[in-house]
From TrEMBL:
The keyword Transmembrane helix applies. The keyword Hydrolase does not apply. It comes from Paenibacillus thailandensis. This is Glycosyltransferase RgtA/B/C/D-like domain-containing protein. Signal peptide: none annotated. Keywords: Membrane, Transmembrane, Transmembrane helix. It comes from the Bacteria. The chain crosses the membrane at residues 12-30, 50-67, 79-103, 123-149, 170-189, 195-211, 263-284, 449-470, 500-519.
Amino acid sequence: MVQIFHTSRNIKISLYAFCSAVLLLLISFYTETLFSNGIKSQAGYISSKALYFICVFIISFFIFHIIERRNDQFIKYWLRNFLLIFVPYLLWLAASWPGIFVWDEFWVYQSSTYFLLEYWQSYLTSYFFILAQYLFPSAGTIVFIQVFFMSAITSWVITKLEIHFAIKRLKYLIIVCLILWPAFIFSTLMTFRSTMIAMLELLLIGLLYFYSRESKLGTSRALVVILFLTVVLSTWRTEGIYHLAVVPIFLLISLGKKYTKKIVLFTIVALCGVLFINNIYYIFNKDNSTKMRYELTAYINPISNILSDRNANLNNINLDIINSVVDVELMKTMPDYYETPSFWNGAVKEGFTNQQLDQFKKEYVKLVLQNPDIFISARTRTLLGASGYSENGKYTSDYISFYLRNNEQNDAVESLLSNPFNKPMISDIRSIVVKYLDFSRSKLGHTSLMMVFWNFTPILLFLSLILIRINSIRDPLIWMSLICLARIPLLFLLQPGSYFMYYYPMYLAGFFVIIVYLLEKRKKYTSKNM
């Protein structure tokens, strides 16, 4: 870490970044008055201020570093590509202001106005919402930051591709896909955590690939950034924990014995970071009930489908233990491959204990092992439903438009729209944007457009093919594909419903992995025939 700041130039940049962080921290004491409804969590409030200062310092350092290197050829290319993506997305955001809000985010936003750390979408998402509003007191700032990250990360990858593979026309085709393809637009304008996770995963695999090819993977600067990304991706969603194993193994194989001590230190720090982030929530919030309730979303869907099946094997299953946590009879009446209706209709019982939950999980495992055919069949339908193969799949749409159109009662939505900075700029234009995105989920004749615009199975299959086709375990493409694919078996087991957003990290990162694979193939073919 010292290497990053030890030159006189970097000391100057650090001073600029520090002054910027101090200035924006002071301004945040004013901006908070424009979005806050009071402080209900002192721990959340104080820690958010400290985190805001750190984040502003790091991002400011990065921006000043870019400005300092503005005459560098790579920076010029990167800036040009950045603007080609950023400007269209900025227009998308302006037209849909304050962005696409679906459901859970309304309550996360409402909690953020009280500096409460909401577990439902991960307390990291609560911090993200609070910090964004410190910058400017609007929910639209959250989406603006996502637009910035999407533009910066994808343009960085495209610039690297441009230099490594001399792509010209293909570059513009990639950019057109990014700025017009509904799945990319909707996911970037949407404020679920899957959006930021997808961007950070793309950045991680980009760093692993290009730094490996450029022999920069073992530098302290690269390892610090990769460490940060590994920790965040391992904790922001439960299934991301595999990064904690895959990334260190890749580093060990790629860098060799010479870097063993560095990699051991990397792994220890990453593990400590994951443990710290996973447990710090309980320092701020002693109530474990929300976490326990949220955990059940991974079990409700399979249980309801197994229990409602007349051929289910229930021998040696203690239904009383399951019934102590969820209402078994109610779940039998509400089986669903694509969602968890019983969860939202009172199946989860109040006041169950940690011990009861642990016993419930053991019975759940027995139930699945005794009914693997029903479980696999149901889970397969859930997965395929998220990829456009069923009209019952859950393709989230903008709830703000629905709310304004139907005048429904919803305190969380009203809380968001009561802030004048969150009001849609031009409702008619916003409706056009939403209709364009909704069109991608409609039918054209007998053809479901969901299978065109939201189908992730071709990417999944292509990434699997890359794993099979590449023979060398030292090839970064194997590990890039593995990082994208490793979440799939975990989602197969744990996903509550058929939501595309769970697979969006694989969709975005996998899109670029496939491009890299094809470009490498073309490069090898060209060199052989020269």
